[in-house]
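Archive maintenance. Older records in this collection stored only the sequence; we are now back-filling the structure field for every entry so that each record is complete. The fields below show one back-filled record exactly as it appears after the update. Entries are processed alphabetically, and G-protein coupled receptors family 1 profile domain-containing protein is next in the queue.

ARCHIVE ENTRY
Title: G-protein coupled receptors family 1 profile domain-containing protein
Organism field: Didymodactylos carnosus
Length field: 298
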Amino acid sequence: MILFSSTSVILSLTFLLIVLCHPRQCYSVSNMLVCNSCLCELLFSLSMLSMALFTYMNDQREQQIADHMCIFRGYLGYVTDALQNYSYALQAIYRYTYVVHHQKRLYQTYRLQFLFILIVWIFCFLSALVLMLSEQIKYNLDNQICQLPLRKTLFKLYIGSCVYCLPLIIIQFVYYKLIRYLRNISNNSGSTTAIGIIQAQREMQVLKRIIVLVSILITNGFPYLVFWFIAFGTDPPLYHFRISFLFVDVSLVPVMIAMFKFNNNVKDILLKSIANLMSRTTKSGPTASDQRTQQKTF
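Back-filled structure field:
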């Protein structure tokens, strides 16, 4: 758990640093939304890392008590997870408006998209705050973690809807609407320019990449979903949080790798930086003539 979370933190920081250090090459509204997703991924990875470290330290010391930050860590876990999911929903909505409402420039401005990001952040912090203020986040002795007990049906449905269901429904709905739009312009190709069709198909490919990222998260979060449904009828296994969080931690790394792969500007800058670093290392090493001179001297 610690290894995967730490790797995701390093990859997220690398992505953000590349964008900050090369603003001209990465200056666009879509990259701003991608950076928001990367920042959310970084915060979620840090949250998972802090919980993993707390669990590990308590296991090593054989302690069975929670520290004063345990409840807050659980709260941040729900907040950052929601931020991550909604960040992909924001990307999907932007891609849809960019294709369908391309004539309305207001939808494609930095200010409006930044406003949407701000609203989502406020919503995520406030929606999870209900759990902490109502003292629903409890310390689980067996799993050494502070989470909402799965047997709390009403609050479980509430947080499940806010954190997981709503953003996934938004993404799927946007994907469905964009497919219908592409079919319509394909059938009415006589009244639609070829450039418009090609542009729409490109944005469809980008949206498919967002679906891939979300699919990775859903697949690796499947054990948690299984335990979530089991808790409706009976008690889940003893170490259900440890098992489900392990799969969540594993998913963080492939998501960040996919972000690098899907963002051509950032990927090209990273590859060039690695190539330059390797060339400098090779040049700084001793040449063949230097090695012969050293051998003759000896």
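Update note: The longest strand covers residues 138-140. The two ends are 52 Å apart (CA to CA).
Entry marked complete.
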